[in-house]
Amino acid sequence: MSPTAPTRLAEIWRGIGALAVLAGLLVACPVLLYAVGGSPLPCDAPAWPEIKALLLQPDTDHALFLGAVRLIGWAAWCLFAAIIAAETIGYLAGRSAPRLPRPIRPAQHLARDLIAMTALIFTTSTALTHPMTSTPAHATSPAPQTTDPRAPASVGAEKAPSQESPPAISGAEQAERPRFRTRIVERGDTLWAIARREYGSGTRYPKIFKASRRLTQPEGVPRLTDPDRIYPGQTLRYPQPKTNKGKRSAASPSKPVAPKNSSSPPAAPSTQPPNRPEKPLPPSPTHSPGSGPTSASRPPVDPPPVNQSSGPQSPPAAQRAEHTKPFAITLPSGAYLGLGLASALSVALAATRLHRRRRRTLASRTWPTPATPEPAPPPAVAQAHRAHLDTYADRDEPVPIDADLLARDLATPIPDQITLGIGPNGAIALPLPGLGLGIAGDGAIGTVRAIATELLARARADRVELLIPAPDAHTLFPDTDITELADALPGLIVPPTLNAAITHLEAEIIRRARLLEDTEEPDLPSLRATDPAEPLPAVLLIASVPEHASNTLHAIVQLGARYGIASLLLGSWPPGTTANVRNDGSVTNAEGHHADALHDARLFNLTATDACGMLQTIRTATGAPEPAPPQPPTETDRSPDPVPPPRASNDGQQTLVQLSLLGPVTLHTPDGPITTGLRRSSRSLLAYLALHPDGVSRDQGTAALWPDHDPDTATTMFHTAISNTRKVLRQATGLREPMFIIHAAGRYRLDPHLIDVDLWHLTTTLNRARHAENDTDRTQALRPVTDLYTGDFATDLTHEWAENHREHLRRTATDALAHLAHLTRHDQPDHALGALEHAVRHDPYSEPLYRRVMELQAQLGRPDAVQRTYRLLTTRLAELDTEPDDQTHQLMTALTSS
């Protein structure tokens, strides 16, 4: 007998007990009432005089009382039988029965629990009552996986894979129903241009917008909320004109065509309320190298809209094939990751760094102190993070800072779909609620590991809850302390056995069903919108399920579809969908409801070593202490030393070019900023050379700027960047002879006689203060820092060396400002307070900085300002899902009560 047989036997006895209770209430009760009191129906209808006489005479033999009890008993039984019938019908139909008045609601809850308990134990894979059980084994609709399953049927004939196949309809009915086509947005597209090509007139673009606005887009692609702003990678759906009534085709040449230079009109008014604006992580670029945008119908907005193009369009299948690459990246270890996991790891890394900045002790009293290196993220996290940020740079969009990534993450809703990989038609996104998917084959563990890691990274703010039995958790993450991880991550539950996990799911179904009943909400999204404080994450069970438990689990998942519950199983899953995958994630065979979407696909996969590093970053993103580095930092990992001052330029000679590195990398001449012609690689080269005024060798430059390219390609790109920089600067200055980047003795460096760098002025000031002989000289040397430190270093660069120096410069500058405040706190407290407030603007998560500010505000007699500062800190830390520590709260209390 298997180890789980006793538990199965107990479940059977539970079902027998539920049936016995139902039988007793529905059969034994009326038999007992009949035996004791007889039939509730009289033989003859009594006349009114008889009733009046019976009511007026004394009830000495208690006949009247017993008759009333008998009638009440029969009425209660009839009511309960009706409730049982209503709940059974509602259960079979997959929807809740009408809510009864409060006095009889406990009877309704009892009937519902008895029916659910019986169905959970005894329902088989073919006797389930949920509507999803009637779906065929294979999906028959070739619709894209990005269709929103909640869209009304009138929007289009396509359905997401999670929905039932549409019933057969007659040819006449099919002719009356609108037909739809889909396409993927390419760089250069506008709704006006698409409508002009499809319908012959761009003025019909609102039809495409209304048909597409509710589509669920692939992971990392924003939804369509504005007809004047569409993005590469978005899926559009547009109705085709009816041809059965003698109408001409929309593409007929006889149709009027709008002029090419006509601008797009304002968006047409819609009777539907607009979708809530989201802040998704933007998609990857979809244009080919060398292609660029043309003139837009409106001024570019951040993020910029796709511009109009009149080029030929590919068929939808070809277009989808072109968009498979931007949604996935391959790590050196062979792991194949989706952009969703890369973006989630970027958020986790950002939260880790902000927690580190929050806890860092200021070096204000003993400044300067030896620079401590910034802990390097795990290699897999660093590579995924860089790949994600490169998607912004590839579209020339501002690269988000850590605070921006966290703010966007806070606006991310609870996921209603799960992205598994890349197929011939683009990203494979299956609906999460009610999902029953089994992954089998040699690559099953790697694929399930990748999906689990992404969901754990997105579990912040009660969005996702993963339920993984301990044996399966150790199989998926062998290099990770699962117990410690489960304690640190609120989105991970590790029950000891599969049976304990099933019991947890049963309790969650009952809890959510009662919440819906008590709040009178129709579904889970409505309940989340009504009460956002109630944690109702999407629940996913990840486990290997033996055959004898498959029916029970299948019933739970089917019941839990309404309540946001799904399953991802290690091994085949005959009741649902099964995909067999190789070690690289490629699908060899798929069977079940979502089989068509999985054929010829490559699913994401992750190695155990890479997953260990990612889970470490996900753990530290919650504020958990970071582990000590296993070895001393290398030259690449160590924060760069302060930049030495540049060589002195000739007296009286004014530089021709100003290079600004505090903020985005920009170039200015006396005539204004240089806004065109400069490549992104040229900006990176200028920033790297500015960090090394003494020059770098070609090998140093190529290793820092193009570490993932082969040496020959990197060398070519290095020379191209230098050539582009010289050409642009010569055109901007009107001079033909200056080199701007000097090559001498095998080293490349910026010409300090022609190029001035704001970073050099800041580092020169810091070096002067660092070598001051006394506090008075140091104070005078530090005063210009508030004017010189205007932003973080090269905020639009994603290289590791740029991020290291960005953090190093922030630490150095904030410590210098804190030391300036320490030196002037007695003689000039207002100036000291100004220096600290400037430091807070550049490091808004540092609790020690806020404590210094509150102390100075209290010294100046401003208790109200102390409270405002504390509230500002509380608001900032709420973005990190934490709050000020006890030391800060006690300080605020002491300063405001004195």
TrEMBL record:
Coiled coil: none
Regions of compositional bias (Pro residues) in chain numbering: 266-286, 370-380
Gene3D superfamilies: LysM domain, P-loop containing nucleotide triphosphate hydrolases, Tetratricopeptide repeat domain, Winged helix-like DNA-binding domain superfamily/Winged helix DNA-binding domain
Keyword Ion transport: no
Low complexity compositional bias, start-end: 249-265, 287-297
Disordered, as annotated region: 131-182, 210-322, 359-380, 621-651
CDD domains reported for this sequence: LysM
Transmembrane segments: 12-36, 71-93, 334-352
Ranges annotated as biased composition (Polar residues): 131-148
Domain LysM: 181-238
Alphabetized UniProt keyword annotations: Membrane, Transmembrane, Transmembrane helix
Domain of life assignment: Bacteria
Name of the protein described by the UniProt record: LysM domain-containing protein
